[in-house]
Amino acid sequence: MRGRGGLHQADVLGEFAWAPAFGSPLRLFVEAKWRGSGRGRLGIPEARHAVGILQDVNQSLVTIDPSLSGVDPNGGPEDTQFSGRGFCYQYRYALCSTSGFTLGAQAYALAHQVALLDLSHADYDAIRNVVDEIGNDLIDLIGAEEASDTSERPATRPSVVRTIRSTLRSQLWGGEFDEFSEAMRVILSPLIEQVHSIGELFIGVSATGFVIILKADNPESMVRHMHAPNDPQTTVYYSVQENGSTQWQIILQSPGIEDCNLSFALPDAMLHALDEKRENGRRSVMLDFKQQHFSRITVYRMTETKSLVCSLRLDRNWLTYARQEISRRRRRSE
Questions:
Q1: Structure-derived torsion over alpha carbons of residues 185, 191, 196, 197, reported in degrees to the nearest 10
Q2: Helices (H) and strands (E) in the chain — how many of each?
Q3: In degrees rounded to 5, what are phi and psi of residue 287?
Q4: CATH 3.40.50.720 given to domain 12-61+85-120
Q5: Between these two residues, 282 and 144, which has the higher pLDDT value?
Q6: Is the distance from CB of 8 to CB of 72 less than 8 angstroms?
Q7: What is the pTM of this model?
């Protein structure tokens, strides 16, 4: 993607299926980071990189010809010849991590509206383990291919990566890809099965624009709730996992539809807004976290045939419970 000051690359560039009202069409950079055990969480450098790309690409639009050729010399500045497009994209950035984020990275990303998608909690243990195992096998395979291939056009690391991508895309998206490999499909089959077992993840947006990934225990049931005449009733629970990560669970209830459980994780930096603090010697209470951020979560689901939007209005009981849990956690740590 060309920016104002240079070219930029990310793992995925997506475009929102429809443009939001009173705004520009949205495009999304997605960058996925994998760090092995012991290498720690993603820090501020990755968050700064995301912010730098956003600032550069969002300033690159030029809609008029800077030269005055062909323009009436007696005309004013409003007569400048139009040569660009009549709209611009608004670019956003989502940073995914299998090892979580440091508090500094969280605070920096939240301040600059970079979405942090944390895939380190228990809901994603199975798929992380499979990726880890297959990833090691593929690294060994690529090394062996490069060392042993004596043909005129030896296999290179980029060519093997293209084969991996084509094989995954054919199995996950359908369709035919030129570099599909049956042998690679066999190697990747545990990962493909694990992805199919998850079924579908849902994108939720808080009242303040904070993006979260929602994992449903029954994706088909979640879709039925989204098709219901009225938005579902919700109950929210908060818990601390054994590894210290925080996890939230939403239970959806609609008449005639089985209950559905949605789980998601929040950055620790955002959870600090649940607590109380002292400023300038005077006790003050932080803004109501529930009211400001999660009084409502908007969930989007888009297919080729139907676009669905569902609003999850959260109950008032979970905030007190969440504060109590955080208070207990801090007392234990002290």
A1: 140
A2: 9, 13
A3: -55, 145
A4: no
A5: 144
A6: no
A7: 0.75
SS3 3: coil
Q: What is the pLDDT of residues 42-83, one digit of tens each?
A: 899 999 999 999 989 888 765 555 554 555 556 555 555 555
Positive or negative torsion for Cα 141, 146, 152, 158 = positive
**CA proximity to 128, closest of 148, 152, 98:** 98
Question: Per residue in 234-280, pLDDT tens?
Answer: 887 776 665 555 678 889 999 999 999 999 887 666 665 444 443 43
Burial of residue 85 (number of CB atoms within 10 Å: 0-12, 13-18, 19+):
exposed
Q: Are 175 and 115 in contact (CB under 8 A)?
A: no
Residue ranges, comma separated, of all CATH 3.40.1350.10 domains in the chain are 12-61+85-120
Distance between the two ends of the chain, CA-based, in angstroms? 48
